[in-house]
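Researcher: Re-running this chain for the archive, since the previous output was lost when a drive failed. Same request as before.
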Amino acid sequence: MSRRTMKTLFIFFSIVGPGLVVMLADTDAGSIITAAQSGAVWGYRMLLLQFILIPILIIAQELTVRLGIVTQKGHGELIKEQFGKYWAWVSVSTLLITCVGAMITEFSGVVGVGNLFHVPPIVSIAAVIIFLVAMAWTGSYKSVERCAIFIGLFELVFIVVAVMAHPHYSEAWKTMWSIPWTSSSYFYLAAANIGAVIMPWMIFYQQSAVVDKKLKIEHLSYARWDTSIGAFITQIIMASVLVATAATIGRTNPGAPLNTVEQISHALIPFLGITTGKLLFALGMLGASLVAAIVVSLTAAWGLGEILGYKRSLEHKPKEAPWFYSVYTVVLVLGGIVILSGINLVSLSVAVEVMNAILLPIVLGFLFLLAVKALPEQYRLKGGYAWTVGIILGVTAIFGLVAGIAGAI
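Model: Regenerated structure tokens:
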């Protein structure tokens, strides 16, 4: 290996992180639940959607990376600067709503895993909150990022689960093209899948993360690769969960309702083996839940700070940035309180993803406008590519909105 190649790899691995973390968080407990529900109810018919979403996800998050690195400002801060405080509050309000919703789904995954091993929900929730609070309050950005990546990589076990489920690949290829165009319930779940992949908090997190990590313009190409690789990984995981449930529940008991995280696990375990199935599902779900809980709570603290102006960096100690760490902790605690109320966690998780899809016009609209207006000429979104991006993001946002509302009605 040449010295130049070694230098390039060294730079890449020092830059990689924000994209990989946010993409691993993208495949959170709510996304896993939504993909499992999709495979159980519709078999392989939503598999094509998972692959269609890869380039859309890359396009959206690349704009986020570009805005953060070039301007060195967070998403909410840029909206406030370009469009005023009112619109900044509109955007951050949608962020906070989706953050609380996401935190609920993350803790639903934690409780589900705890129930598999007969751990009371209050113990599972308390243990996770204490761990995540201690990690952030005593660490730095780099230590939190490394911890998040390590935890999130446990999600890769879902690929193993998909292989062990022995799917019929010819059946999957044939069925994935068969779309029930007249079914409102199909499009409700389709909207949930879109909301599970393109989430408002992802945009806020990655833009703030590249700023907090102090990435510069010369790092832009590496950050784009970080994002693209992460997008492929997250969608492979989503597709794996869908395939696993389609090949098992979807084949033996199609349309079976999955009302709890434990039901999803127990439905898979007979096909994977009791011990192996329980362990693999637990590792994957716990990894998905924890990495997303880290990202979502940090995003809320960063986003609100961009509007209110308080210190907002993991490089600051808690005494230097008390509001930042307080918001981070409060979001965790609120999610835990709601979960302990005993609501239907699977239905709630799918509904949260649909809510994300319905809010996409606001989120993607601001993202596109900032890429056109807030960047210097050299990095601004313009020309034919701007039209292409605008159409892709617009169609995605409108489909998510219409399908989500139509399915809910």
